[in-house]
Design brief:
The complex is a heterodimer of chains A (292) and B (545). By secondary structure, chain A is mainly α. Helices cover 73% and strands 4% of the residues of chain A. In chain A, strand 3 and strand 4 form a beta hairpin. Chain B has a six-stranded mixed sheet, with helices on both faces. A six-stranded mixed sheet of chain B has the order 16-17-18-13-19-20, with helices on both faces. In chain B, strands 2-1-4-5 form a four-stranded antiparallel sheet, covered by helices on one side. The chains are: A mainly alpha (292), B alpha/beta (545).
């Protein structure tokens, strides 16, 4: 068993798509709670309290969405009070809370995803789809920071030549334009050499392959199958309205049956899967270390 | 057995009248290491590119190029890409991807190798070149030497039979260059890799190459062992100036026969042939102008708040009208010191005075008007226009006021110029503000011997015109020839500073080839002319003239 982070990048990426899909399709309060709990558990199990600051910003966003919705949405039968002559309803607040929770859950999942999915892993996934696309991505990833670095060098050089003045705003704009065009000229000239270097190494002579450092092991296959199964079960529940919920005019949750229980169970397993794997790995390490 | 055979090869660039190559014939055997020399524009790079059909220049070719008996024109592009490796001058421009491992895999990916084969080759290359410690890094974070080593490894993954290298060490500092050349030697000796190498570092490559090719104006003058080539062509000054110090000394002394090759043989030759009764030249007295052009007092600087100090209490005085060379290893802070002197970075403590006035009292860019100018290391950061004429007009430079002539280059594109010519145009732009203090960051980087000589003359003229010059350089020969004082930069400060003769004769490693060759025989011979005059004063051993 391996943690999600050490699994094959395709599995990692698909997991995050699978876990966020159901909550984006349906704003079911219990499902949202499960998703949020799973996302937070994963964050804390991997990085401890390091993301607290980011989470506080996310929480502020949730409250904002929850508060703003009832100010503009006045549907709903349970009027709590009137604000400037407009009714503020319980249903609108509930909807706002759920929308906020959905945003929060998705953001938390993506936070973990951005920590796990390095550029190499994206390249591996896209390389399997299209080697050319993956090469273009890689070249772009190299080009952007290089361009910034060179702009800086050009700015210093032009200033040292006495050709860059930044006394007034028009001077500054003219100077920056100058710096930009020198850097572009340099990049274009550089491009000719890079093209030579690519052709000299056989670029464009036939079908490319995409090399990646990652292997797809049996474990990755098993994990992927589990993820897809849980996703399928959850989607079954969602599409058959087993866990349907309506907000307007009144908050109504349909009768929850066996299928609903199954949906909740499947989604719970899906949400807590990476946390379980992480914790399992940590325990194993602890155990191994205490033996050393 | 010949791996590469060239027969009566001539080439004319499309749209040009005069041929770039004329009737070139030679062959290279398997396992040979051949060095190709010649002045800029003699057709070396053109010749090399013609061997590789994917990147051959456009134009009219006649004659034959055979690789292992097959004409290269009939090789498929794939075969040509895999069988002939090609490494260029600029380390950064050859790198295609963002990660080291991806760059290594690039060639094999292009040829469509399956994953397992790629992994095997990449792993092997990374181990052989000791790339493993930085295997996962971004290519942008590597040093120049590491980048060039990566380029070499990335070419070798396809297992080429012939390796072509076009001035691979021109942009590297001396230590990285020596490492790189040593790697080439290892590849040649251990793996029997055949290589053709264009190089301007005679001290390092001549002793290890099997044969030396000399080209001049599109023709092949000679191809033979370096010793024999130098025996026959050593009397020609334009060829001699690109040769190792031992050979230059030998021929300047008017000796005949087989010249010594490299430091060790040079020493043996001197010991055997010349007396050493007069051991030293008189030390030239150091006189300096009254006024201080640049003074730095206890200057501290760091790039990042939490980073380490790059300049630590740097104190330096440069007097008006002198030429000062700053030498030192990469990362010792010499370029930073130059940038601080030019006002590009502000030190967090200490004072910088320019012509007696505090740097921060120069307002509204007055520091850069008739006062200070910096010639940057990378001249590509300077050019903006499509012709040299427009470049000069952009900076407000008057071509007639320059101490050298640029008229023949006026209509050319700055990027089409040779390294030496580019440097001259960049310098012209710098001189447009008529600076009294000129700061130059590695002005001779990547230049051949002739271009270097020309630049030295220009700096001398500038000095005569009253310009104070501070040069950061790795080039000990340049410093020994040119400067009034040389300083060694170490850990963000000046470790030693004195006149070049005293400076270089005291240093054991950071010194010129002549000084290393004459150590223990003569006490303070630093330049070619020092050694020649000492030898002449002493006369030959055994009474011979």
């Amino acid at each position: 068993m391996k943690s999600l982070e050490r699994s094959h990048p395709t599995v990692t990426l698909l997991y995050f798509l699978a876990v966020t899909l159901p909550v984006m399709l349906c704003m079911e309060p219990l499902l949202l709670c499960i998703s949020l709990a799973g996302a937070l558990a994963l964050l804390f199990s991997r990085t401890g309290g390091r993301n607290i600051r980011t989470l506080l910003y996310f929480l502020a966003l949730l409250l904002l969405i929850a508060l703003v919705n009832p100010l503009f949405q006045h549907d709903g039968v349970t009027v709590l009070f009137f604000l400037n002559g407009n009714p503020v309803t319980w249903e609108a607040i509930a909807f706002g809370l759920c929308a906020g929770a959905m945003t929060l859950a998705v953001l938390c999942w993506f936070l973990s995803m951005s920590q796990m999915m390095t550029t190499d892993k994206y390249l591996c996934v896209f390389g399997a789809l299209s080697p050319k696309l993956s090469l273009m991505l890689s070249m772009a990833l190299r080009f952007v920071p290089l361009f910034t670095k060179r702009m800086h060098a050009v700015r210093l050089a032009q200033r040292g030549l006495g050709l860059y003045r930044d006394g007034t705003l028009p001077d500054k704009l003219r100077g920056e334009l100058r710096v930009f065009s020198v850097t572009v000229t340099w990049a274009l000239e550089n491009g000719i050499h890079t093209a030579d270097s690519m052709e000299a190494r056989g670029y464009g002579t036939g079908r490319r392959t995409a090399y990646a450092e990652y292997d797809f092991h049996a474990w990755d296959g098993a994990l992927l199958a589990l993820i897809l199964l849980m996703l399928a079960l959850t989607l079954c529940g969602l599409l058959t309205d087993a866990v349907a919920v309506t907000f307007y005019p009144a908050l109504v949750r349909a009768e929850r049956g066996v299928l609903a229980a199954l949906t909740y169970a499947a989604y719970t397993l899906l949400s807590f899967l990476p946390t379980l794997l992480t914790v399992q790995e940590k325990i194993k390490w602890h155990f191994l270390q205490s033996k050393i | 057995m010949a791996l590469l055979t060239v027969e009566n090869l001539s080439f004319t660039y499309a749209g040009e009248e005069t041929p770039a190559l004329q009737d070139v014939s030679f062959s290279i055997r398997r396992g040979e290491m051949v060095v190709l020399c010649g002045a800029t524009g003699c057709g070396k790079s053109t010749l090399m590119r013609l061997f590789k059909r994917e990147i051959s220049p456009m134009g009219e070719v006649s004659g034959e190029i055979l690789l292992g008996g097959t004409p290269t024109a009939s090789l498929s592009v794939r075969e040509s890409a895999a069988r002939i490796g090609y490494v260029m001058q600029h380390p950064e421009e050859q790198i295609v991807t963002d990660k080291v491992w991806h760059e290594l895999a690039f060639g094999l990916e292009s040829l469509g190798y399956p994953r397992d084969a790629i992994r095997r080759r990449v792993a092997e290359m990374a181990s052989y070149f000791d790339i493993e410690p930085w295997f996962d890094k971004d290519t942008a974070s590597l040093s120049g030497g590491q980048k060039q080593l990566l380029n070499l490894a990335a070419v070798l993954v396809t297992d080429p039979e012939l390796l072509l290298l076009d001035e691979p060490t021109a942009q590297l500092d001396p230590i990285a260059a020596a490492d790189f050349i040593d790697t080439l030697r290892r590849l040649n000796r251990e793996l029997g890799l055949t290589m053709l190498l264009i190089e301007h570092r005679p001290e390092e490559v001549m002793p290890i190459c099997d044969r030396l090719m000399i080209m001049e104006e599109g023709r092949l003058l000679a191809i033979d062992t370096p010793r024999r080539v130098m025996e026959t062509l050593g009397t020609r000054p334009e060829i001699l100036c690109g040769m190792p110090a031992s050979v230059r000394l030998f021929h300047t002394l008017g000796e005949n026969g087989t010249p010594p090759l490299g430091i060790r043989e040079g020493r043996e030759f001197l010991k055997a042939s010349y007396a050493n009764d007069v051991r030293a030249l008189p030390h030239e007295p150091y006189t300096h102008g009254e006024r201080v052009a640049l003074s730095m007092k206890n200057v501290c600087f760091r790039y990042e708040k939490t980073g380490a100090d790059v300049l630590r209490d740097t104190t330096l005085e440069v007097f008006e009208g002198e030429i000062l060379c700053l030498l030192g290893a990469n990362g010792s802070g010499k370029t930073t010191a130059l940038s601080v002197a030019a006002g590009l970075f502000k030190p967090y403590s200490g004072t910088v005075r320019v012509f007696g006035k505090k740097q921060k009292d120069y307002r509204d860019g007055s520091l850069y008007r008739s006062c200070v100018a910096l010639l940057p290391q990378n001249v590509q950061t300077v050019f903006l226009k499509s012709t040299v004429r427009e470049e000069l007009a952009d900076a407000g430079a008057d071509p007639a006021a320059l101490p050298y002539d640029l008229t023949h280059l006026m209509a050319r594109h700055p990027y089409d110029l040779s390294g030496g010519e580019r440097q001259l145009v960049a310098l012209a732009k710098v001189l447009a503000t008529s600076p009294r203090l000129l700061l130059a960051d590695e002005p001779t980087k990547g230049l051949d011997a002739n271009a270097k000589r020309h630049l030295i003359e220009i700096f001398r003229t500038l000095k005569q015109n009253g310009v104070t010059v501070v040069i950061v350089t790795h080039d000990t020969e340049l410093a020994a020839e040119l400067c009034d004082r040389a300083a060694l930069f170490f850990r963000g400060g000046i470790a030693s500073i004195s006149t070049p003769r005293a400076f270089f004769s005291e240093n054991r490693f950071y010194t010129t080839a002549v000084s290393r060759m004459t150590r223990g025989i003569y006490d303070n011979a630093v330049t070619q002319s020092d050694a020649v005059s000492l030898c002449r004063q002493n006369g030959r051993r055994g009474g011979a003239s």
